Batch of 3 targets.
Target 1
Amino acid sequence: MKKNYVVAGAILLSVNMFAQEQPKVDSLKNYYEIQEVNIFGKDKNEGPIHRVDVQLIQDFNKTNVVDAVNLLPGVSITQMGARNEGSILVRGFNSLRTPVFFDGIPIYTPYDGNFDLSRFTTFDIHSISVEKSLVSVQYGPNTMGGAVNIVSRKPVKALDIDGQSGVGFADGTGVNSYFTALNIGTRQDKYYIMGSASLLKVDNYLISRKFDGTPLQPSLERVNSESMDVRLSAKFGYTPNKTDEYSFSIISKMQIKTSLPMH
């Protein structure tokens, strides 16, 4: 009688062990496998980069960098300081936190770090790019707002000649500005040469017609608002292959700008 109890106990133990060895079904895992989503994209994410090219600049007749950058979303322009300097704001950060580069070279002013970006004309510029959010460490410090890079023009054919001239009109005063520019260059198999010359002259700009004249400002033509920008540049580039490029640029700029009276 005792042997029968032992056999029965062994059979029950084997049944319990067999039940424990059965694989468990994870219903939650199966649910998420059904809901799986595959995302396909580019390997390299350059982030939010906005660019304005030379064609867009000419279509909107933007003669300086500040007005050209104003075509891009998320960028604001301002005239600030006692020197009435043109500047840009990227996500609320000015040029002290959003550095400006010309062909990858940073532009700085030793005095207070601010510079008049509206004095940079667009006649020899190929494009202007604005990088927002996080940028590469290669741009250096002070890039909380992003970075702005101005790319100069390069010739695209053996004889590349481009010129433009124009005048600006103010309602009631006739012609108040004019500009002229000429770009001549050549592109060969392993090198290119580009020369540019430009002149931008602004006599004045108008204030509101609702303004009542004063002894310091008797007419609608703003007093001491004239400016003149003369720019000469030359660029030589060496391209030994399809991936490498070495360039040398020389820029000479003369500007005359009168300060607005503070009253």
Note: The two ends are 119 Å apart (CA to CA).
Target 2
Amino acid sequence: MSHEQMLAWLDRADAGQVQAAAGRLTAAAKAIREIAEELKVRPQWVAWKGEGANAFRTWSADLANSTLRLGDFSEDAATWLTEASGAIARAQASIPRDGARPSTPSSPDPSGTSPERAAQAAHEERVRQEAAAQMRKLTQTYAWSATQLNALERPKLPPLPDAITPDPTKKVLESTDRDRDGGNASSRFRT
């Protein structure tokens, strides 16, 4: 890959967008953890007794724990996105941008092997190699961050317990607007 191609590729990367996504995940983690704390407490306030109540409280405790793990997942994902964002910013700041020194007019060498041209070619190759090294660092950080993201444990939310899940074979009584307003649903919209 030429130096110009590396620069073009790197200049399209946006460390700010990656960091913004990390910030959103961090904010989401905070909100998710607050919800999990509510899920731990609120089911205890329900005035309900019996097998269904116990099943509901057990399920809600499991749900709260899974929700806490979801907050941890979000926070951990933000950490690895922040790492990738930093790698982009470091690469953009470190990559050499002076791919070639301007050639100085001198007596042209018809063979094209003047000492100036050879020095210029050597300089261009050093700059390209340095740019390639920066791109390798970025690639390695990307790969490491992706590996860490993929290794994060995805939380599994528990299904509703059978004791509080409606039986799908039984018809649930439906209440309609007609039942509530004597069949004149439009009466609710009169001004």
Note: DSSP finds five helices and no strands in the chain.
Target 3
Amino acid sequence: MLRPVRADRRTTSPRSAAPLGRRLPLVAAAVVAAGLTAACGPSSGPAGSAAAAPAGQSSQAFPSESPSATASVEASPTASASPSASASAPASSSPTPSRAQTGSGSTGGGSAKPARTSAAPAPAKVPGPGYDSSADAQKQIDAALRAAKSDGRMVLLDFGANWCGNCKAADKVFAQSQTAGILGASYHLVKVDIGGNSSANSALLRKYSPSGGTYTMPVLVVVSPSGTVRTDTHVTGNPSLTAEGINAFLRKWAA
């Protein structure tokens, strides 16, 4: 920084040159101003003008300071390039949705679990063909009524005899898969032997079919879970002892 001052002393006439004691503070001020310009960036005015005004000297007094300021401005493109880098950084670091955000939409209506439906009750046991003369019919009817109160099925009482032809025809229909399915789903079937000499079974017949008279077997009586007689074929007459006739009868009184 002292070399340009010496050159200026050679080119400037002794008359117009200021004393050396006045120039050195101005040179130091110019160096500081140039450093501030380089640190803070280029100013709107010409470099070195703020230092030249108080000294009362022309702008040619410090010709070497303007190149340094220019150099500092030319070196600033590295700083001006930083905004583009900083602008590109946010673009590249775009936020990515987290797993919780991406997975939250998939569970919108659906996180609800399906309602559990109650399973249908197991089919009731359907007794085989024939009538057991040694069975306690009263106990069987009582058990059937208890089961009916639990599951809501009807109780079907079949009064007949092993030597009765119509009873055997009805037994064959009861053994068919479709009819057995209706019986198991909607009824508790109790078969009561009235072909022998059992007075207890004859009393049960008169209890559930009290109209009396001559009975045409089989006598089919549908009883509700509460024990009320819903229909009695001794009064209404037997249905056709075919699959169609018996199935229609069973469906009618199942509800």
Note: The longest strand covers residues 154-160.
